Amino acid sequence: MVEEIGKTAEGDLIINVGPQHPATHGVLHLIITLNGETIKKVEPHLGYIHRSIEKMCESLTYRQFIYTTSRMDYLSAHINNHACALTVEKGLGIEIPARAQVIRVLMDELTRIASHELWWGAMAMDLGAFTPFFHAFRERETINDIMEETCGARLTMNYMVPGGVMMDLHPNFQNRVKNFLTLYKRKIHEYDELVTGNIIFQNRMKGVGVLSKEAAISFGVTGPAARGSGVSCDVRKLYPYEIYNTLEFDEILETEGDSFARYMVRLREMNESIKIIEQLIDNIPEGDFQAKTKAVLKLPKGEFYQRVETARGELGVYIVSEGGTTPYRIKFRSPGFSNLSCLDHITRGGKIGDLIASMGTLDLVIPDIDR
Amino acid sequence: MFSLESLTTLVQDWLNKTFPPTWALLIEFVIVGILAIALFAALGLVLVIMERKVAAWIQIRLGPNRVGPLGILQSTADTIKLIMKEGLTPDGADKFLFNLAPFIVMIVSMLILAPIGFAKGFHIWDINIGVLYVSAISSVSVIGILMAGWASNNKYSLLGAMRSGAQMVSYELSVGLSVLSIIVLTGSLNINDIVLSQQNGWWLFKAHIPAIISFVIFIIAITAETNRAPFDLSEAESELTAGFHTEYSGMKFALFFLSEYINIFIVCAIGATLFLGGWMPFHIGNWESFNHIMDYIPSFIWFFGKTFFMIFLIMWFRWTFPRLRVDQLLNLEWKYLLPISMVNLIVMTLVAIKGWHF
């Protein structure tokens, strides 16, 4: 038996990375073909955490189906819920109170920071440095505490409902967020000292997993992964929803397209989110947190589409309505799926370590890919 | 002053008086064997708990704190767990080599212990080629690792073993050259002589910049030699799950784990002996009174203090740096460390010949 190790028809080594593997952060299954340490092909196999969320949504009402979407991309649950709520509101044609809009944007940006924090820690852990993970969690815990206080949950918040948000902000919210902002600003330099400036880290990231602008567009890559290649694709800027067109923030673009560019985009994006939160935290308007809606929501016959920018890229929600209380068909355009599709393209010819680094910077969340 | 030398001579004299010489020698062997194994067990437990505490300290968390006071019995509990676990041999593995590999790695670690001077007059084997012996024996452990990787019938293990082979063979050169640069100064391979030559100051301070360069190279190379992060490519958790010991469980895994820590101890002990004077107290030239005060600290405290300082350095690396990629690892050795240490050796030889050191 020992003689048969790695013998294939072409004499290549074929390795199953996953479904249980420390680097895939979930049940992603990659079949990689190796020549020594060099990668010849990467073939992702999906479906290990497919829960048929889209089909389930067809038998849930427009109020209920939002809760399943927290389980898609569990790291940006708020933003998923937000997208669904926006689509339903578009169909119903309701106007959202100003307070609810501000709360939604605040929550979205906090979620984005929390998601990037976790990505940063996991990314460093993929590269073999364990300590950044704990440093990232120190800040992320603060955000989770804020969420817990206001929404009652730390991960699957289910806070956004059609018409606004489920309940009003907790009285401590503003103070807590301000404390978080001071903590973040005091600690953010550690991120650069511990990881970004590290020579080993830069060698591992620079020039690795290069995704050209054209390739990024043709693979449908969105979010920070595409912005690292210089593709301007921030939905908050291009197709503003809620109050994003009134806010001051920059779309972060890097042009190198390598893993380090994608890394820098996410780090700088966190600062932009901080900027947005600072603009809003003292200016939360008084008023209703939810618009008056009917007890049973019925969307008119037709098709409705809404896109938002999650921490990973563009999430599109497409609802086909027959005029009933449940959608006829729902389709989610999840960012993870398209981002994963470029993995083979960017890792061919690299080493196994490059595969891990590139996969880390794509920031894949597997339940988001499979749904 | 308390010294272990008197203890060893006492035992030696008593045995030789009471028993015929052959029996005395045999009993000494048994005593040394028991002491070595006891040291192994103690070191394994201490280093594992130390690693976890250091990691916790760096990672702003508490670390083990449930079993025993401050969690110091945690590693004991873990060892008991590992002993109780089933030692699985996978179907399709080469059973003989698979089961042999952890023992080879372990035996190698035990053998290297022999010439190390733990305190004044306290070493197992005062051999005149001590340093050469250490570097010769330590290169055998790569065979154990290759064997483990090959016999597991697992592709991850095979990749890990391949990486480990390339890495350990390469970095041995740098270790050897930086050790040589101290040998050039002392003119002896005997570890006891090397320690005695640092009577009036440690080589790290006495031999100017070349000694510091070779000390830095030595630390980098031993980190790679013992497969520790940032050079832990043979285990590379996020790439190869656990590398060459993926298929090992129970006590067979524990032997690999233990030998990793023992190897760290040994290479750090060698480093402390060569560059930091081993059990020699901190002496400065001819400051008589200062040197006398330093002499009051027992020699084994000096030895273990220096060794654990170096172990702490290596743990610090592990919890700070990301891992290198395999080609970068080999580039670092062949393109940077090896040429630098070669030039450094020539400079050091010049220093030794001209007598420019203190």
What would a concise description of this structure say?
Chain A is α+β, with helices and mostly antiparallel strands and 371 residues long. Chain A is 47% helix and 12% strand.
Protein architecture, described:
The complex is a heterodimer of chains A (371) and B (358). Chain A has 371 residues and is α+β, with helices and mostly antiparallel strands. Chain A has 15 helices and eight strands. In chain A, the strands form three sheets. Chain A has a three-stranded antiparallel β-sheet. In chain A, helix 3 (77-92) packs antiparallel against helix 4 (98-126) and helix 11 runs parallel beside helix 14. Mean pLDDT of chain A is 86; it is low at 1-7. Chain B is 70% helix and 1% strand. Chain B has one domain. In chain B, helix 7 runs antiparallel to helix 10 (208-225). The longest helix of chain B has 38 residues, at 21-58. Chain B has 358 residues and is mainly α. Classes of the chains: A alpha+beta (371), B mainly alpha (358). Chains A and B meet through helix 4, helix 5, helix 7 and helix 14 of A and helix 7, helix 11 and helix 15 of B.
Topology at a glance:
The complex is a heterodimer of chains A (371) and B (358).
Chain A: E1 13-17, E2 29-35, E3 38-45, H1 53-57, H2 65-69, H3 77-92, H4 98-126, H5 131-151, E4 160-161, E5 164-165, H6 173-196, H7 199-205, H8 213-219, H9 224-227, H10 235-238, H11 259-281, E6 302-309, E7 314-321, E8 329-333, H12 335-341, H13 343-347, H14 352-362, H15 366-370
Antiparallel strand pairs in A: 1-2, 2-3, 4-5, 6-7, 7-8
Helix pairs in contact in A: 3-4, 4-5, 4-11, 4-14, 5-6, 6-11, 11-14
Chain B: H1 4-18, H2 21-58, H3 74-84, H4 95-112, E1 117-119, E2 122-123, H5 130-138, H6 141-151, H7 155-186, H8 191-196, H9 203-206, H10 208-225, H11 237-240, H12 250-276, H13 288-295, H14 299-318, H15 326-354
Antiparallel strand pairs in B: 1-2
Helix pairs in contact in B: 1-2, 2-3, 2-12, 3-12, 4-5, 4-6, 4-12, 6-7, 7-10, 7-15, 10-12, 10-15, 12-14
